[in-house]
Design a protein that fits this description.
Number of strands of chain A: 10
Number of helices of chain B: 8
CATH architecture of chain B: Orthogonal Bundle
Largest sheet of chain B: 2 strands, antiparallel
Mean pLDDT of chain A: 90
CATH architecture of the largest domain in chain A: 3-Layer(aba) Sandwich
Strand order of the largest sheet of chain B: 1-2
Largest interface: B-C, 75 and 72 residues
Oligomer: heterotrimer
Order of helices and strands of chain B: HHEEHHHHHH
Chains: A alpha/beta, B mainly alpha, C mainly alpha
Helix content of chain A: 40-55%
Distance between the termini of chain A: 51 Å
Low-confidence stretches of chain B: 165-191
Number of domains of chain A: 2
Shape of chain A: globular
Radius of gyration of chain B: 19 Å
Order of helices and strands of chain A: EEEEHEHEHHHHEHEHEEHHHH
CATH topology of chain B: Arp2/3 complex 21 kDa subunit ARPC3
Structural class of chain A: alpha/beta
CATH class of chain B: Mainly Alpha
Mean pLDDT of chain B: 81
CATH superfamily of the largest domain in chain A: P-loop containing nucleotide triphosphate hydrolases
Largest sheet of chain A: 6 strands, mixed
Helix content of chain B: 55-70%
Structural class of chain B: mainly alpha
Distance between the termini of chain B: 23 Å
CATH topology of the largest domain in chain A: Rossmann fold
Radius of gyration of chain A: 21 Å
Chain lengths: ~280, ~240, ~270
């Protein structure tokens, strides 16, 4: 599997002297992989993403994004990376939606016909053609998020980096965004790195989950099922486990050991199966 | 607040053109002075300071009469070159609201730009003379003095508007404006502005504004120096 | 100077002036301002003013609001007229009318034309730093307005602004501006970072798409040329100044007709 991103024992110093050390498990993202970063506030999730984008410079350790050190050579690879920030206002630069979506290809020197085609495609794909000539400050949070993601996807990047993309948008918009990201990953093979507090979205958007504790230490790596089974570790990191994870943990304490389910449907099936089994065992029809 | 609120069509053409020419030269110089800084670093800075100046202009500190300019603050924080570019953008944008004529944007930029320039250098001078602990006094005084000087420039512009350049070339001593003066009122141009009373009235009217802006500048710079001292002290263009 | 409301009108309007394209509207405004500069005749100036008010009615926007926005510069024109008073009421009236009329023509432009469209027209004649600076300033204004709103609310609910506590109010107000400045700088640094990440190389906005001249453009130009033509006629031939009163009457009739039509159509 081709490694797109690798972070190992990376150290970062804030201006006030606080230090973050991303040690423990190496942070690795492979081609086509969907990675979610979980952690409490102040653990360094956004800082890690900023380091990957070359917006911050580490003081020590190893960091590689598409084969380069991003703090030095980000410009060599930025065309292959799409970004969506938590505060999407920060990245909507141009005064109109169509101008903003075409911002990156225009500055990378694409021809006008190509730019027009790319913009038309992405507007259609995200179903936001009606926003083409709108100005950003009259758009809702969900619309801005879509415009931001359109700008990130327009050049068909190999890697997409999103910092808490599900904050400030309603559940319907959130599901639309998740479906879009999954489609982009499936159809174009785009690797995704995103940070979130929204635990319920993790099973549907992640292949791999990294758990970061306070201070930056990477304390867990695994599939969503594996990570959500480690309730104690999640608690230590002050990360609220998903409701289903807590449910299965409580059942385990009661002596009913079931494989952790990640979705309500799977959980309902697992619990129903167990009830039927118990009924059969004690002879209840 | 010495922004020229003179409408279009009042000042003579030659003066308006001179304002634009001077602004063009100063803009070219400012752009040249900031050439070492990346465009993408300058533009967000200019954008945010210009936006802040416009937003502050929408907040009247005394209803209708006074609003703060932030030109001296812009000068201190951005340096005179970048501040001048920012001020031109602000004057251009507010002229679109009819806030001062579009034709006098050149003159406005010269006057308000002069505030930023003088304010910056006076601030540096006072800090050297009075020490780093005097940041409030240095910035407040710099603001007041630069506003007095820029208002004087404004009075000078209004006085110049009465001059006929063709006649000035061929003038005689004792006839400074190329117009007829009478023996009874030697200070007054027969068909022009009584510049002394204009100057007196405007200095009184704007005096309160200078004081307010000076006080506000002092508190703002003090606040910024405590939270982001790097914005106040490094070398600026 | 209500930036937000002006921007809102420009983007959400649907009148013929809104549909006219920016370059022709700018030309119209230039013709009107040239007329204002050239003439010192009170009747001509009043005629232009009433014509512009008629156009304001046709924009289907709140006319009173537009006139109020455009009247703000008149306060300063009044002060200026008073300061240079030399006994002539006509001269004072001319100064105030020039201020009102010029302001109204600019406001009409800006309440019917989104800023980005105006910037697209002036961009080619400006240095890049100013052209791009205008766009980023425009974006930043709305972000700062939101921050300012929140700041004022916070000051009010936390007792930072109180009646009669003038010194405290000034101190807190100044701290508020300091806070806006610091937040603004943080924003600009992050904005710079994002411009870098997104590949900025000197072009924030796309090139303006060429569009054919429409009937709305023609109408705007015809009105502009009419105003300019009449004005220049009176400047060149002083005898035409006698017709000034008739021009004023015509413009008042146009204003009345526009008001009546608007009343019936709402």
């Amino acid at each position: 599997m081709e490694e797109l991103v690798k972070v190992s024992n990376l150290k970062f110093n804030y201006p006030d002297g606080t230090e973050l050390l991303f040690d423990g498990v190496d942070f690795v993202v492979n081609k086509g992989e969907r990675v979610v970063i979980l952690g409490p506030n102040g653990s360094g999730k956004s800082t890690l993403l900023s380091l990957l984008l070359g917006l911050l410079t580490a003081s020590d350790g190893e960091i590689s994004v598409l084969g380069i050190n991003p703090s030095k050579d980000y410009e060599k690879v930025r065309e292959r990376i799409g970004v969506l920030l938590q505060n999407v206002d920060l990245q909507i630069i141009a005064p109109r939606v169509s101008d903003d979506i075409s911002f990156s290809p225009r500055n990378y020197g694409y021809k006008q016909e190509e730019i027009d085609e790319l913009v038309d495609d992405i507007l259609k794909k995200l179903e936001i053609e009606h926003l083409r000539d709108k100005v950003p400050h009259y758009m809702s949070g969900g619309e801005k998020a879509k415009v931001g993601i359109a700008g990130a996807l327009v050049t068909k990047p190999e890697l997409l980096i999103l910092d808490e993309p599900f904050e400030h948008i309603d559940p319907t918009c959130r599901m639309e965004l998740i479906n879009l990201l999954n489609n982009v990953n499936k159809e174009d093979g785009t690797a995704i790195i995103l940070s979130t507090h929204n635990m319920n979205t993790v099973p549907i958007i992640a292949d791999t989950v990294y758990l970061i504790a306070e201070g930056g230490r990477i304390v867990g790596k695994g599939t969503p099922k594996e990570i959500f089974s480690e309730i104690d570790k999640l608690s230590q990191c002050h990360v609220e486990p998903p409701i289903l994870g807590s449910l299965f943990s409580e059942l385990k304490d009661m002596g009913i050991e079931l494989d952790v389910s990640l979705t309500v449907k799977d959980a309902a099936c697992a619990i129903a199966s167990e009830i039927v089994l118990l009924k059969n065992q004690i002879g209840i029809k | 607040m010495s922004h020229l609120h003179i409408p279009d069509g009042i000042l003579p053409g030659w003066l308006v053109i001179a304002g634009w020419l001077l602004t063009a030269v100063m803009l070219a110089f400012s752009i040249y002075r900031t050439r070492h800084k990346e465009l993408k670093r300058k533009i967000p800075l200019i954008g945010i300071i210009s936006a802040l100046m416009i937003v502050c202009m929408t907040i009247p500190i005394v209803p209708i009469a006074y609003h703060i300019n932030l030109s001296v603050i812009a000068g201190i924080i951005l340096g005179p070159a970048v501040a001048f570019i920012s001020i031109f953008i602000v004057d251009f944008l507010i002229a679109m609201f009819g806030h001062g004529g579009i034709t006098v944007v050149g003159l406005n930029t010269v006057v308000v730009g002069a505030e930023a320039l003088i304010g910056f250098y006076l601030f540096q001078l006072f800090m050297v003379m009075m020490g780093k602990d005097s940041i409030m006094w240095s910035s407040g005084l710099a603001a007041v003095i630069s506003l007095i000087l820029s208002t004087s420039l404004l009075v000078g512009i209004v006085y110049s508007s009465q001059l006929n350049p063709e006649l000035v070339i061929g003038i005689e001593k004792g006839n400074p404006a190329g117009q007829v003066v009478t023996d009874e009122a030697p200070d007054e141009l027969v068909s022009g502005v009584n510049i002394k009373s204009f100057a007196k009235t405007i200095l009184v009217l704007l005096g309160i504004g200078w004081l307010l802006e000076g006080i506000i500048t002092a508190f703002v710079i003090k606040y910024v120096s405590r939270v982001r001292p790097d914005l106040i002290f490094p070398q600026r263009t | 100077m209500d930036v937000a409301i002006i921007d809102y009108y420009a983007i959400h309007g649907s009148s013929f002036l809104h549909r006219a394209t920016a370059p022709w509207k700018i030309l119209f405004t230039a013709l009107v301002i040239a007329s204002i500069i050239l003439t010192d005749d009170i009747y001509i100036l009043l005629g232009i003013y009433f014509t512009l008010v008629s156009l304001a009615i046709w924009t289907k926007l709140p006319v009173q609001r537009i006139i109020t926005i455009a009247a703000y510069p008149a306060i300063f024109a009044l002060i200026f007229a008073f300061l240079i008073w030399n006994g002539s009421w006509t001269k004072a009236a001319v100064i105030i009318l020039k201020a009102l009329t010029a302001a109204l023509s600019m406001v009409l432009l800006i309440v019917t034309t989104p800023y980005p469209d105006v910037f697209d027209v002036v961009r080619p004649i400006m240095p890049r730093i100013i052209a791009e600076g205008l766009i980023v300033t425009y974006r930043s204004i709305f972000i700062l307005l939101e921050l300012t709103d929140e700041l004022i609310k916070a000051l009010r609910v936390r007792g930072g602004i109180s009646r009669r506590k003038y010194i405290t109010n000034i101190k807190n107000f100044s701290s508020g501006i300091g806070l806006l400045l610091v937040k603004g700088f943080d924003f600009s640094e992050k904005f710079y970072g994002m411009m870098n990440v997104r590949g900025y190389g000197g072009k924030i906005s796309g090139d303006r798409r060429q569009s054919f001249i429409t009937y709305n453009d023609i109408l705007a130009i015809v009105i502009g040329l009419l105003i300019f033509g009449i004005t220049i006629g009176t400047v060149i031939k002083k005898e035409f100044l006698q017709l000034g009163i008739y021009i004023l009457i015509l413009s008042v009739i146009a204003l009345v007709i526009s008001s009546v039509i608007k009343q019936f159509s709402t």
